[in-house]
Each structure stands twice: as C-alpha cells, then as structure tokens.
Amino acid sequence: MEYRFLGRSGLKVSALSFGSWVTFGDQVDEQIAYNCMAEAYDAGVNFFDNAEVYSEGKSEIMMGNIIKKAGWKRSDLVLSTKIFWGGEGPNDSGLSYKHIIEGTDAALKRMQTDYVDLIFCHRPDIHTPVEETVWAMNQVIQSGKAFYWGTSEWPAWQIREAYSVARRENLRPPLMEQPQYNMFHRERVEREYAALYDDIGLGTTIWSPLASGLLTGKYNDGIPDDSRLSLEKYDWLRKSLLESDEGKKNLEKTGKLAELCNEAGLSMPELALLWCLKNPNVSTVITGASKPEQVRQNMKTLEKKELLTGDVVEKVEEILNNRPSEPQDFRS
Ligand SMILES: NC(=O)c1ccc[n+]([C@@H]2O[C@H](COP(=O)([O-])OP(=O)(O)OC[C@H]3O[C@@H](n4cnc5c(N)ncnc54)[C@H](OP(=O)(O)O)[C@@H]3O)[C@@H](O)[C@H]2O)c1
Fold first, then answer.
1. Predicted pLDDT at 332
2. Which of 214, 262, 288, 317 has its CA 20 to 30 A from that of 62?
C-alpha cells in the first residue's frame, strides 16, 4: 500500500481507502461487512469512511462492532464520520453548533470510539452562518473528539470562506474536502478547487471512483441482480446514472474504455482507480464494495500502476472528451 499525506498535514492516509455508503446496513450484513473491512485492512488500508446518515446510523454501529471484534489497534486506523443528516427533528440536521456537537457525540457512541480522526461537514448549510460552523468544528477538535475537520461537496468559495474565518478567529481551519471524483465527474477536483491545494493546503478524500460501479463495465449489458443499481432504495441513482442523457453517453464511453482496457492489460476497475490515483491532489481514493472479492481485486490495483502509461491516459482523454477547461488567459 502507498500512503499519502492528507493535504498540508502530518497525517498519512492509505492511497486506497474504504467506505460504507449503500453497503453497510442497506445491502450487506455485518459478517460480509467484516470480511470486506478485513480484506481492506490486510491490504494496508488505514482510512475507513462513514457518516451519521449512512443507513440511518446502522453503518457506524456496524463499523464500530467490526473494529472491536477484529481487535485492530485504534492508533493504526484513521476513522471518519460526516455530520449533516442526523434525523427528522428540526435540530437534527444541518451545521448548527447544536447539531454538530450532538451529532458528533451520537456518532462516537455508535462507533464505540472516543474520537474520529476526520470529521466532515457533509454538505454546505445555507441556513447556518459559516462562523457558527467553524466555531463548532473547532470545539469538536478542542474537546478531542476529532483531529481534523473538513467539508464534503462544498463550493470552493465556501471552503475558502470557512478557512478565512478560522484564520481570522485563530481557530482550526478545514483541512480536507470529500468530493466525488471519477472519469465522468472531474470539474470540481480538477478545475474548481485547483487553487486551494497550494493556497490553503487542501487534501481530498475522493468518493465514487467507479461511479457506483458504472466504470467496472458491469452495466454495459443491463443491470445485474446483485448490483447497487438493482436496489429499490437507490432507484434515484439508477435513473441518474443510467437513464439520464449524460448517463447514456457515459455508458457508451464505458464500452470504449473496455476495449482500451483489453489493449492496456488492465481490468476496468483497475483503470478507473489508477486514473484517480494519478492525480497528485487526490490524497486518498475511497473505494466501496459489496463483496470481499471486490475489495481483494481493487486493492491489487497499485501493482498495475506502470500499465497506466502516458499513451493510455491520452487515449482515455480521447474517449472521455470531458477535460475541464483551463482558466482563460486574456493577455494572450
Ligand atoms: N461524501 C459524500 O457525499 C459521499 C458520497 C458517496 C460516497 N462517499 C464515500 O465514498 C465511498 C465510496 O463510494 P462508492 O461506494 O460510491 O464507490 P464506487 O467505487 O464508485 O462504487 C462501489 C461499488 O461498485 C461496485 N464494485 C466495487 N468494486 C468492484 C469490482 N472490483 N468489480 C465490480 N463491481 C465493483 C460495488 O457495487 P455492487 O453492489 O454493484 O457490487 C461497490 O459497492 C463510500 O463508501 C463513502 O464512504 C461519500
């Protein structure tokens, strides 16, 4: 396993990490979840991602049970959770001081740990002043309940605003962002955040590197029964990934990527994961899996690193035809 610094911090995270969205609690039971996490841990994964909203808290409970049962040393792990959607009550969601503190306490209890290493504001909250959120996150860190805080799917301007407030008030600034990033979804990581990596030392823990499995080629000939997009609860995801105009175009590109993979000696998941890992601004690629065999396969990806040559990357660009544009230079 390769380990990368999380942005401009002293914390090292495994280049490939593991998360529990969709799977833990909604798709797989605790034994399968255990086997998946154990595969990841044995391959050197140290970062495990979670959120209070995943399976309405069941995912955190399962992960906590698994870590306890496995007997892994807490200091060997980088655990995260994300706060925003904690329940139905008027104060159970968002990024108010109240929900951040109460949501964090409840998550720690479910995970059976005194602290998470990383805590994320799962989305921006248009109703809460950013000062309130920054003060609350600072309090979470001051009280030892988390080591670093960050954002997920925040626009660049709001990350910068939170950073400036923290600097102005002498509080802990956000360190990392958790954005979607894969061959079909590039704009934010490659273009919108571009200045933040150097300016504020932003790290990224990127999600859905396989576009929920689309980039494995498993949907090229229909929807397999045991796949994510066959789950009724995730009907919305199937519609957006397969039935939208963009989804249909992406599916076509996936067919072409499959041919390229054959030429390059890579499997489709390997190509998709290596492509994400190639970006130096990606601190860690969070993988997901519903079967331990998938984890085993995905974790071997780094062994194929040299097969993603410049030539293959260029051919990928031709197929994708979605490279984010550079800022316009009005002088030339
Ligand atoms: N911050 C956020 O808003 C946010 C949002 C989403 C995710 N995340 C985080 O990112 C993590 C990863 O996201 P993701 O689960 O969407 O990642 P992904 O890699 O795009 O999709 C994972 C799914 O693809 C399929 N798969 C994985 N490896 C495979 C392989 N080798 N061959 C065939 N199929 C394979 C499995 O689904 P099947 O059931 O079809 O087998 C698996 O559950 C999540 O667990 C979560 O921690 C964060």
1. 82
2. 214
What structural domains does the chain harbor?
Answer: 3-214+276-306 (3.20.20.100)
| pLDDT single digits (tens) 116-131 | 999 999 999 999 999 9
CA angle 291, 63, 173 (to 5 degrees): 115
| C-beta of residue 100 within 8 angstroms of C-beta of residue 83 | yes
| CA-27 nearest atom, ligand 1 | 39
Is 209 touching ligand 1 by the criterion CB < 6 Å?
yes
CB of 287 sitting under 6 A from ligand 1: yes
Catalytic residues, by residue number, are 54
Cβ distance 118 to 176 under 8 Å?
A: yes
**Which residues in the chain belong to E strands, given as ranges?**
3-5, 12-14, 16-19, 47-49, 78-83, 116-121, 146-151, 176-177, 203-206, 284-287
**Residue given tokens 């002293």 in the structure block:** 10
Q: What's phi and psi for 175, nearest 5 deg?
A: -105, -35
Whether 326 has a pLDDT exceeding 90, the answer reads: no
Q: What is the mean pLDDT of residues 234-256?
A: 94
Closest ligand 1 atom to 293 CA: 31
Query: Does 104 sit in the ligand 1 pocket, CB within 6 Å?
Result: no
Whole-angstrom CA distances from 130 to 45, 51, 65, 103, 134 are: 33, 21, 34, 18, 6
pTM of the predicted protein model: 0.97
